[in-house]
Design brief:
heterodimer, A: 159 residues, alpha+beta, Ubiquitin-like (UB roll), DNA polymerase, domain 1, 2 domains, five-stranded mixed β-sheet, B: 282 residues, Uridine Diphospho-n-acetylenolpyruvylglucosamine Reductase, domain 2, Uridine Diphospho-n-acetylenolpyruvylglucosamine Reductase, domain 3, Enolase-like, domain 1, five-stranded antiparallel β-sheet, 14 strands, globular
Chain lengths: 159, 282
Amino acid sequence: MTHAYDISLTVNGELLTARVEARKSLVDFLRDDLSLTGSHVGCEHGVCGACTVRVNGQIVRGCLMLAVQCGGATVETIEGVSDTGEIADLQDAFEKRNALQCGFCTPGMLLTAQELLANGKTPSRDDIREHISGNYCRCTGYHAIVDAVEAVAQARNGK
Amino acid sequence: MKPAPFAYAKARSVEDAVKLLGEHGDGARLLAGGQSLMATLNMRLSQPSILIDLNGISGLDGISVENGMLKVGALVRHAAAAKSDLVAKNAPLIAMAMPHIAHPAIRNRGTIGGSIAFADPAAELPACFLALGGEAEIAGKGGGRWVKADDFFKGLYETAIGADEMLTAVRLSAATPEMRYGFAELSRRHGDYAIAGLAASARADGASLKDIRLAYFGVGLTPVRAKGAEAALAAGKIDDAVKALASDLDPPDDIQETGTVKKHLAGVLLRRVAAQLTGARA
């Protein structure tokens, strides 16, 4: 038996309505129904961080929230923040410093890093490691990611 | 994996949530932050027939101080508690525990009430609640009632909350200048569930400690008070306190470690936390 519900929400600035099955996670809804495949599905139980998206301005696990819960919410994905240019400097730094290889973790990593930097402070390397500790990367060993985030933090604060 | 199908209802109020629980019985689960529940649904460890979403209920996300007690609404998110000056000032133990709880994206969604009501034996907040001797406000058909932390945890994932009841707030004695707090946790990676952890509170009385409450997590089916160790510590005997853990605790083996290792680690944690309580260097 399926249980479907109507929701209206804003995704990357666009107001839309959809009928979603209650059991559908937010990240599956974004990927399967809206074809926003930049958010990735990794572990599906909240450990890996590949599905990280922003809901009402805060990063959340897209696999640990249901689409049906997002009625009235504002959702932003990697596609949205790429289009607005909000994280263009982070994306450049990730590329320059080889802070990605396969790229599977990168959308979640970028959104998580952006939340840390959004408060305008310059975090220490330990702060950066702590903040991205819920996002797994199997390629880089993290050093290059910390380098990239640190470089952007310093550049944004004119250092 | 994907969850098995379930229906969804958004509760408009506490009364509405309690009514829905009564209507749907055992097949219903309450959805707060969902940071544990959703994972179990995705792995099909749990297959409820309906989820009752509490997130739309207003008035459950407040933090206030009333009559010397800090009251934290059940829907207060971890991130909000971590940023709260009221929590930092009146419940420093909660503030000490916060950085150990999972990761930023989880703390943005997870709730204080959800963690305590779920009562994962390896989680930080149930142990803090026990160490602080808090009280839980439980709402049911007949209205609300308060249950003391010492009477709250009944068994593995079992609490004093009845089948058609829900947790609406916790109340903690607000910190006073003579209160001391300690917190330490051992986990494989920062943010993981604890292999073993200890949350503690005590009242300083000159050079000695009184009213000591040692609440271990990750070493039993519930958070566990180590009462023998509490008594030894109150007598100023740290070595005896560590020895007392042998009869205070009986940790089962789990996926992370054997009970023997956990018991050893409990002693290590006690020395660290005792040093925090007495203000000495660990």
